[in-house]
Protein backbone atom coordinates (compact mmCIF):
# COMPACT_ATOMS: atom_id res chain seq x y z
CA UNK A 1 0.00 0.00 0.00
CA UNK A 2 1.69 3.18 -1.18
CA UNK A 3 0.97 6.76 -0.10
CA UNK A 4 -1.71 8.16 -2.42
CA UNK A 5 -2.56 11.74 -3.34
CA UNK A 6 -6.29 12.48 -3.33
CA UNK A 7 -6.56 16.27 -2.98
CA UNK A 8 -4.35 19.33 -3.39
CA UNK A 9 -4.08 19.90 0.37
CA UNK A 10 -1.13 17.82 1.59
CA UNK A 11 -2.42 17.47 5.14
CA UNK A 12 -5.81 16.25 3.89
CA UNK A 13 -3.86 13.65 1.89
CA UNK A 14 -1.80 12.62 4.89
CA UNK A 15 -4.85 12.14 7.12
CA UNK A 16 -6.71 10.24 4.36
CA UNK A 17 -3.80 7.81 4.05
CA UNK A 18 -3.43 7.61 7.82
CA UNK A 19 -7.05 6.90 8.74
CA UNK A 20 -8.57 5.40 5.62
CA UNK A 21 -5.72 4.06 3.47
CA UNK A 22 -6.17 0.45 4.57
CA UNK A 23 -9.83 0.43 3.44
CA UNK A 24 -9.16 1.73 -0.08
CA UNK A 25 -8.81 -1.77 -1.54
CA UNK A 26 -12.56 -2.29 -1.05
CA UNK A 27 -14.14 -0.85 -4.22
CA UNK A 28 -17.39 0.15 -2.47
CA UNK A 29 -15.49 2.06 0.24
CA UNK A 30 -13.19 3.63 -2.34
CA UNK A 31 -16.25 4.80 -4.28
CA UNK A 32 -17.84 6.30 -1.12
CA UNK A 33 -14.61 8.12 -0.28
CA UNK A 34 -14.12 9.47 -3.79
CA UNK A 35 -17.69 10.84 -3.78
CA UNK A 36 -17.13 12.42 -0.35
CA UNK A 37 -13.91 14.09 -1.56
CA UNK A 38 -15.90 16.11 -4.12
CA UNK A 39 -17.49 18.05 -1.23
CA UNK A 40 -14.39 18.65 0.89
CA UNK A 41 -13.16 22.24 0.71
CA UNK A 42 -12.39 23.18 4.31
CA UNK A 43 -12.34 21.87 7.90
CA UNK A 44 -16.11 21.92 8.31
CA UNK A 45 -16.90 20.07 5.07
CA UNK A 46 -14.18 17.56 6.03
CA UNK A 47 -15.99 16.83 9.33
CA UNK A 48 -19.46 16.60 7.70
CA UNK A 49 -18.30 14.22 4.95
CA UNK A 50 -16.69 11.68 7.29
CA UNK A 51 -19.40 11.88 9.94
CA UNK A 52 -22.03 10.96 7.31
CA UNK A 53 -20.02 7.96 6.16
CA UNK A 54 -19.24 6.96 9.77
CA UNK A 55 -22.93 6.85 10.69
CA UNK A 56 -23.82 4.98 7.50
CA UNK A 57 -21.09 2.37 8.16
CA UNK A 58 -22.10 1.98 11.80
CA UNK A 59 -25.74 1.28 10.83
CA UNK A 60 -24.46 -1.41 8.43
CA UNK A 61 -22.44 -3.00 11.26
CA UNK A 62 -19.10 -2.12 9.64
CA UNK A 63 -17.63 -1.07 12.96
CA UNK A 64 -13.93 -0.94 12.03
CA UNK A 65 -14.66 1.28 9.02
CA UNK A 66 -17.06 3.43 11.06
CA UNK A 67 -14.35 3.88 13.68
CA UNK A 68 -11.87 5.07 11.03
CA UNK A 69 -14.41 7.54 9.61
CA UNK A 70 -15.16 8.91 13.10
CA UNK A 71 -11.41 9.33 13.73
CA UNK A 72 -10.92 11.15 10.43
CA UNK A 73 -14.01 13.32 10.99
CA UNK A 74 -12.92 14.46 14.43
CA UNK A 75 -9.43 15.48 13.30
CA UNK A 76 -10.05 19.22 12.73
CA UNK A 77 -12.62 19.74 15.50
CA UNK A 78 -11.64 21.82 18.53
CA UNK A 79 -11.84 20.34 22.04
CA UNK A 80 -14.46 22.98 22.89
CA UNK A 81 -16.77 21.72 20.11
CA UNK A 82 -19.38 19.28 21.52
CA UNK A 83 -19.08 17.31 18.27
CA UNK A 84 -15.48 16.50 19.19
CA UNK A 85 -16.52 14.54 22.29
CA UNK A 86 -19.26 12.78 20.32
CA UNK A 87 -16.90 11.77 17.49
CA UNK A 88 -14.21 10.60 19.94
CA UNK A 89 -16.70 8.50 21.92
CA UNK A 90 -18.08 6.96 18.74
CA UNK A 91 -14.58 6.31 17.43
CA UNK A 92 -13.63 4.33 20.55
CA UNK A 93 -16.99 2.56 20.82
CA UNK A 94 -16.79 1.29 17.23
CA UNK A 95 -13.09 0.51 17.55
CA UNK A 96 -13.58 -1.88 20.47
CA UNK A 97 -16.67 -3.43 18.84
CA UNK A 98 -14.48 -4.41 15.90
CA UNK A 99 -11.28 -5.22 17.83
CA UNK A 100 -9.93 -8.70 17.10
CA UNK A 101 -6.31 -8.22 18.08
CA UNK A 102 -4.20 -9.58 20.93
CA UNK A 103 -5.83 -9.67 24.42
CA UNK A 104 -5.56 -6.32 26.21
CA UNK A 105 -5.37 -5.34 29.87
CA UNK A 106 -6.50 -1.76 30.59
CA UNK A 107 -5.07 0.37 33.42
CA UNK A 108 -5.41 3.89 34.80
CA UNK A 109 -2.00 5.10 35.93
CA UNK A 110 -2.17 7.67 38.78
CA UNK A 111 -0.43 10.90 37.81
CA UNK A 112 -0.46 14.21 39.68
CA UNK A 113 -4.08 14.62 40.82
CA UNK A 114 -5.46 12.70 37.83
CA UNK A 115 -4.54 9.61 35.80
CA UNK A 116 -3.63 8.53 32.31
CA UNK A 117 -4.71 5.35 30.47
CA UNK A 118 -2.39 2.47 29.61
CA UNK A 119 -2.85 -0.86 27.90
CA UNK A 120 -0.65 -3.91 28.40
CA UNK A 121 -0.16 -6.99 26.25
CA UNK A 122 1.80 -9.90 27.66
CA UNK A 123 3.24 -12.33 25.15
CA UNK A 124 4.16 -15.86 26.13
CA UNK A 125 7.81 -16.24 27.10
CA UNK A 126 8.57 -12.49 27.00
CA UNK A 127 11.31 -11.25 29.32
CA UNK A 128 11.59 -7.61 28.22
CA UNK A 129 9.22 -4.63 27.95
CA UNK A 130 8.55 -2.16 25.15
CA UNK A 131 6.86 1.12 26.14
CA UNK A 132 4.87 2.73 23.35
CA UNK A 133 3.39 6.25 23.06
CA UNK A 134 2.29 8.79 20.47
CA UNK A 135 2.73 12.52 19.98
CA UNK A 136 0.68 15.60 19.10
CA UNK A 137 -2.74 14.21 18.27
CA UNK A 138 -2.48 10.48 18.86
CA UNK A 139 -4.65 8.24 20.98
CA UNK A 140 -4.21 4.78 22.42
CA UNK A 141 -6.47 3.00 19.96
CA UNK A 142 -4.34 4.13 17.03
CA UNK A 143 -1.38 2.25 18.52
CA UNK A 144 -3.12 -1.05 19.26
CA UNK A 145 -2.99 -2.46 15.69
CA UNK A 146 0.81 -2.24 15.89
CA UNK A 147 1.04 -4.73 18.75
CA UNK A 148 0.73 -7.93 16.75
CA UNK A 149 3.73 -6.83 14.63
CA UNK A 150 5.90 -7.19 17.75
CA UNK A 151 4.74 -10.66 18.82
CA UNK A 152 7.43 -13.34 19.34
CA UNK A 153 10.23 -10.80 19.79
CA UNK A 154 10.51 -11.38 23.55
CA UNK A 155 8.78 -8.14 24.60
CA UNK A 156 5.63 -7.41 26.51
CA UNK A 157 4.13 -4.11 25.33
CA UNK A 158 2.68 -1.25 27.34
CA UNK A 159 1.12 1.63 25.40
CA UNK A 160 -0.08 4.79 27.10
CA UNK A 161 -1.58 8.21 26.50
CA UNK A 162 0.40 10.84 28.32
CA UNK A 163 -0.45 14.45 29.19
CA UNK A 164 -2.08 16.26 26.28
CA UNK A 165 -3.11 13.07 24.48
CA UNK A 166 -6.47 11.29 24.08
CA UNK A 167 -8.20 10.55 27.35
CA UNK A 168 -5.36 12.04 29.41
CA UNK A 169 -6.12 15.46 27.88
CA UNK A 170 -9.80 14.98 28.69
CA UNK A 171 -8.73 14.12 32.26
CA UNK A 172 -7.23 17.60 32.56
CA UNK A 173 -3.58 16.72 31.85
CA UNK A 174 -2.05 19.20 29.42
CA UNK A 175 0.75 18.67 26.89
CA UNK A 176 4.17 19.03 28.55
CA UNK A 177 7.80 18.98 27.43
CA UNK A 178 9.26 16.99 30.35
CA UNK A 179 8.03 13.56 29.25
CA UNK A 180 10.24 11.75 31.74
CA UNK A 181 7.60 12.56 34.38
CA UNK A 182 4.73 10.45 32.99
CA UNK A 183 7.23 7.77 31.89
CA UNK A 184 8.68 7.54 35.41
CA UNK A 185 5.13 7.31 36.84
CA UNK A 186 4.39 4.48 34.40
CA UNK A 187 7.59 2.57 35.23
CA UNK A 188 6.88 2.92 38.96
CA UNK A 189 3.28 1.76 38.52
CA UNK A 190 4.31 -1.39 36.64
CA UNK A 191 7.47 -1.85 38.73
CA UNK A 192 9.78 -1.90 35.69
CA UNK A 193 13.55 -1.46 35.89
CA UNK A 194 14.63 -1.88 32.27
CA UNK A 195 12.62 -0.90 29.20
CA UNK A 196 12.88 0.08 25.56
CA UNK A 197 10.74 3.11 24.63
CA UNK A 198 9.14 3.87 21.26
CA UNK A 199 7.70 7.31 20.49
CA UNK A 200 5.63 8.08 17.36
CA UNK A 201 5.62 11.47 15.62
CA UNK A 202 6.08 14.26 18.23
CA UNK A 203 6.71 11.25 20.46
CA UNK A 204 10.11 11.06 18.74
CA UNK A 205 11.08 14.07 20.85
CA UNK A 206 9.25 12.76 23.93
CA UNK A 207 11.00 9.38 24.01
CA UNK A 208 14.47 10.92 23.69
CA UNK A 209 13.64 13.56 26.29
CA UNK A 210 12.53 10.76 28.65
CA UNK A 211 15.70 8.75 27.91
CA UNK A 212 17.86 11.76 28.82
CA UNK A 213 16.51 11.84 32.39
CA UNK A 214 15.06 8.35 33.09
CA UNK A 215 17.82 5.76 33.04
CA UNK A 216 15.53 2.78 33.41
CA UNK A 217 15.15 3.37 29.67
CA UNK A 218 17.86 1.28 28.03
CA UNK A 219 17.00 1.97 24.37
CA UNK A 220 14.88 4.47 22.44
CA UNK A 221 13.11 4.12 19.09
CA UNK A 222 12.53 7.51 17.50
CA UNK A 223 9.67 7.02 15.03
CA UNK A 224 10.31 9.58 13.45
CA UNK A 225 13.06 12.05 14.29
CA UNK A 226 11.75 15.17 16.01
CA UNK A 227 14.23 17.77 17.22
CA UNK A 228 11.99 20.58 18.43
CA UNK A 229 8.44 21.89 18.33
CA UNK A 230 9.39 25.08 16.49
CA UNK A 231 10.53 22.94 13.52
CA UNK A 232 6.89 22.01 12.93
CA UNK A 233 5.59 25.56 13.26
CA UNK A 234 8.17 26.98 10.85
CA UNK A 235 8.43 23.97 8.53
CA UNK A 236 6.99 25.72 5.46
CA UNK A 237 8.39 29.16 6.13
CA UNK A 238 11.88 29.48 7.59
CA UNK A 239 11.79 33.28 7.49
CA UNK A 240 8.57 33.35 9.52
CA UNK A 241 10.18 31.02 12.05
CA UNK A 242 13.15 33.34 12.63
CA UNK A 243 10.81 36.31 12.88
CA UNK A 244 8.64 34.40 15.38
CA UNK A 245 11.58 33.37 17.54
CA UNK A 246 12.81 36.96 17.65
CA UNK A 247 9.34 38.20 18.67
CA UNK A 248 9.00 35.41 21.27
CA UNK A 249 12.36 36.28 22.82
CA UNK A 250 11.12 39.87 23.17
CA UNK A 251 7.70 38.72 24.50
CA UNK A 252 5.90 40.58 21.69
CA UNK A 253 2.53 39.01 22.48
CA UNK A 254 0.26 41.23 20.35
CA UNK A 255 2.48 41.10 17.28
CA UNK A 256 2.73 37.31 17.48
CA UNK A 257 -1.01 36.82 17.92
CA UNK A 258 -1.74 39.12 14.98
CA UNK A 259 0.77 37.29 12.77
CA UNK A 260 -0.49 33.84 13.81
CA UNK A 261 -4.19 34.62 13.38
CA UNK A 262 -3.63 36.03 9.89
CA UNK A 263 -1.61 32.90 8.92
CA UNK A 264 -4.32 30.65 10.41
CA UNK A 265 -7.01 32.34 8.30
CA UNK A 266 -5.04 31.75 5.13
CA UNK A 267 -3.86 28.17 5.72
CA UNK A 268 -5.94 25.18 6.91
CA UNK A 269 -2.91 23.11 7.88
CA UNK A 270 -1.33 25.91 9.87
CA UNK A 271 -4.68 26.68 11.52
CA UNK A 272 -4.90 23.08 12.72
CA UNK A 273 -1.33 23.05 14.08
CA UNK A 274 -1.93 26.15 16.20
CA UNK A 275 -5.54 25.36 17.22
CA UNK A 276 -4.67 21.79 18.20
CA UNK A 277 -1.62 23.09 20.04
CA UNK A 278 -3.68 25.55 22.05
CA UNK A 279 -6.11 22.75 22.96
CA UNK A 280 -3.26 20.40 23.92
CA UNK A 281 -1.43 22.94 26.07
CA UNK A 282 -4.65 24.47 27.43
CA UNK A 283 -3.59 27.93 26.31
CA UNK A 284 -5.88 30.59 24.84
CA UNK A 285 -3.65 32.50 22.46
CA UNK A 286 -1.07 31.47 19.84
CA UNK A 287 1.56 33.41 21.81
CA UNK A 288 1.01 31.36 24.97
CA UNK A 289 1.00 28.15 22.95
CA UNK A 290 4.29 29.03 21.25
CA UNK A 291 5.87 29.90 24.61
CA UNK A 292 4.89 26.41 25.83
CA UNK A 293 6.16 24.71 22.66
CA UNK A 294 9.55 26.45 22.81
CA UNK A 295 10.33 24.16 25.75
CA UNK A 296 9.95 21.08 23.50
CA UNK A 297 13.52 20.88 22.22
CA UNK A 298 16.49 18.51 22.30
CA UNK A 299 18.86 21.47 22.35
CA UNK A 300 21.14 21.23 25.39
CA UNK A 301 20.14 17.72 26.53
CA UNK A 302 21.60 15.59 23.73
CA UNK A 303 24.71 14.63 25.71
CA UNK A 304 22.56 13.11 28.48
CA UNK A 305 21.37 10.37 26.10
CA UNK A 306 23.73 7.42 26.48
CA UNK A 307 21.42 4.62 25.35
CA UNK A 308 21.05 2.66 22.10
CA UNK A 309 18.93 4.81 19.77
CA UNK A 310 17.14 4.01 16.51
CA UNK A 311 16.49 7.13 14.39
CA UNK A 312 13.91 6.82 11.61
CA UNK A 313 13.08 9.56 9.10
CA UNK A 314 11.01 10.11 5.96
CA UNK A 315 12.76 12.25 3.36
CA UNK A 316 9.51 14.05 2.43
CA UNK A 317 8.07 14.41 5.94
CA UNK A 318 5.67 17.40 5.88
CA UNK A 319 6.03 18.09 9.60
CA UNK A 320 9.72 17.54 10.37
CA UNK A 321 12.69 18.78 8.30
CA UNK A 322 14.95 15.93 7.15
CA UNK A 323 17.94 18.16 8.07
CA UNK A 324 17.24 17.25 11.72
CA UNK A 325 18.88 13.85 11.10
CA UNK A 326 22.29 15.53 10.74
CA UNK A 327 21.71 17.43 14.01
CA UNK A 328 20.98 14.18 15.83
CA UNK A 329 24.00 12.43 14.33
CA UNK A 330 26.29 15.32 15.32
CA UNK A 331 24.90 15.93 18.79
CA UNK A 332 23.95 12.53 20.24
CA UNK A 333 27.64 12.06 21.06
CA UNK A 334 27.12 9.54 23.88
CA UNK A 335 24.42 7.45 22.22
CA UNK A 336 24.89 4.34 20.12
CA UNK A 337 22.98 5.34 16.96
CA UNK A 338 21.31 3.23 14.29
CA UNK A 339 19.56 5.25 11.57
CA UNK A 340 17.36 4.79 8.54
CA UNK A 341 16.13 7.42 6.06
CA UNK A 342 13.22 6.34 3.84
CA UNK A 343 12.94 7.85 0.36
CA UNK A 344 10.37 8.00 -2.45
CA UNK A 345 12.33 5.19 -4.13
CA UNK A 346 12.25 2.89 -1.10
CA UNK A 347 8.77 3.99 0.00
CA UNK A 348 8.14 5.33 3.50
CA UNK A 349 9.16 8.90 2.61
CA UNK A 350 6.16 10.38 4.47
CA UNK A 351 5.85 11.30 8.17
CA UNK A 352 5.98 8.07 10.23
CA UNK A 353 6.12 6.17 6.93
CA UNK A 354 2.37 6.53 6.37
CA UNK A 355 1.60 4.53 3.25
CA UNK A 356 4.37 2.00 4.01
CA UNK A 357 4.56 1.62 7.78
CA UNK A 358 5.61 -2.02 7.23
CA UNK A 359 9.04 -0.66 6.22
CA UNK A 360 9.38 1.23 9.51
CA UNK A 361 8.26 -1.84 11.46
CA UNK A 362 10.89 -3.99 9.73
CA UNK A 363 13.61 -1.61 10.97
CA UNK A 364 12.09 -1.46 14.45
CA UNK A 365 11.92 -5.27 14.69
CA UNK A 366 15.56 -5.61 13.58
CA UNK A 367 16.56 -3.12 16.29
CA UNK A 368 14.48 -4.85 19.00
CA UNK A 369 15.86 -8.30 18.20
CA UNK A 370 19.41 -6.99 18.67
CA UNK A 371 18.65 -5.64 22.16
Automatic annotation (TrEMBL):
Transmembrane segments: none annotated. One of its GO terms (molecular function) is hydrolase activity. Pfam families: Abhydrolase_1. Keywords: Hydrolase. Gene3D superfamilies: alpha/beta hydrolase (3.40.50.1820). SUPFAM superfamilies: alpha/beta-Hydrolases (SSF53474). InterPro entries: AB_hydrolase_1, AB_hydrolase_fold. Residues 130-331 form the AB hydrolase-1 domain. This is Alpha/beta superfamily hydrolase. It comes from Clostridium acetobutylicum (strain ATCC 824 / DSM 792 / JCM 1419 / IAM 19013 / LMG 5710 / NBRC 13948 / NRRL B-527 / VKM B-1787 / 2291 / W).
